[in-house]
Write a structure and sequence with these properties.
This protein folds into 3 domains: about 1-75, Thrombin, subunit H; about 90-190, Trypsin-like serine proteases (Thrombin, subunit H, Beta Barrel), CATH 2.40.10.10; about 200-290, Roll (Pdz3 Domain), CATH 2.30.42. The strands form 5 sheets. A 6-stranded antiparallel β-barrel has the order 8-9-10-13-12-11. Strands 15, 16, 17, 18, 19 and 20 form a 6-stranded antiparallel sheet that branches. It is mainly β. About 35% of the residues are buried. Helix content is about 15%, strand content about 35%.
Length: about 290
């Protein structure tokens, strides 16, 4: 507190926050799910609950590839009320979506919108399967839950599209990491402090429409931009420039579909990858590795 020496009135001097974001408690023991970029390079972490109670917290683990992190509240009774997780696979475009968080440090803010689309890839992360929503999401909402009309978490608010490089406000295009992936990552972070995902070891690119039409007709296509040295893909014989047609007999036409097909596998599991190489189809067996 500070006192005005002239009038004698008291003023609160706000504490300076080096970084601020949102999160949701996911276990009775006080594990908090948030975004990696919210706590990246943080030295001291504190969690403030809705009633204003402040607790020190520590980082349990984070996964930059999905931009997720788990914190653990260090004090308290250990009987916190976790948010109920919904099934993000069952979410339908057009249903209500509610963003909960602390935009611009306004704690406990709630905004209402709809699920605009699913399976979005916008080039921010190596692995993307965003839920798009028009619920108002702003600076400080990152890490907060996106919930359905029954209050079940269907995503973790992660990013927004703005009107330009200098703009910070919402324009009705926000993105959330699906809850099914978020909970899976969180569980691994709690159990072992890291999240391992299956990989082939390739960098992918989306064919532009004219090239896709010339090579594949009416379909879209995904090409291998580069094969990582020493990766399972290199050992199996995949090459730069190969166009992926299907995986295990299922057609894939987008980067997200390829990523999902691989992530669903176990480690060291064989994956049949059919590619178009110099006009000819080839099916190559690749065994998944660890990132």
């Amino acid at each position: 507190m500070a006192r005005d020496s002239w009038w004698g009135r008291l003023y609160t001097i706000p504490r300076r926050l080096a970084g601020q974001g949102s999160g949701g408690i996911i276990t009775p023991e006080g594990h908090v799910l948030t975004c990696h970029h919210v706590i990246a390079e943080a030295e001291d972490i504190e969690v403030v609950l809705r009633d204003g109670t402040l607790y020190p917290a520590r980082l349990v683990g984070s996964d930059p590839a999905s931009d997720l992190a788990v914190l653990k509240i260090e004090e308290g009774e250990g009987d916190f009320t976790p948010i109920e997780a919904g099934d993000s696979e069952g979410v339908r475009v057009g249903e209500f979506a509610i963003a909960v968080g602390s935009p611009f440090a306004l704690s406990g803010s709630v905004t209402l919108g709809i699920v605009s689309q699913k399976g979005r890839s916008v080039g921010l992360l190596p692995h993307e399967d965003y839920i798009q929503t028009d619920a108002s999401i702003n600076v400080g909402n990152s890490g907060g839950p996106l919930v359905d009309i029954d209050g079940r978490m269907i995503g973790i608010n992660n990013a927004i599209t703005t009107a330009g490089p200098q703009a910070r406000g919402n324009v009705g295009i926000g993105f959330a990491v699906p809850s099914n992936l978020a909970i899976e990552v969180a569980r691994e972070l709690i159990e072992q402090g890291k999240y391992d995902r299956p990989r082939l070891g390739v960098m992918l690119g989306q064919l532009n429409p004219s090239t896709a039409y010339r090579l594949l007709g009416e379909r879209s296509g995904v090409f291998i931009d580069s094969v990582l040295p020493g990766s399972p893909a290199e050992e199996a014989g995949l090459r730069d420039g190969d166009i992926i047609i299907d995986i295990d007999g299922e057609e894939v036409t987008t980067i997200v579909e390829v990523q999902q097909a691989v992530i669903r596998r176990d480690f060291d599991e064989p994956v049949e990858v059919t590619v178009l190489r110099r006009g000819r189809e080839r099916t190559i067996t690749v065994r998944t590795g660890r990132e």
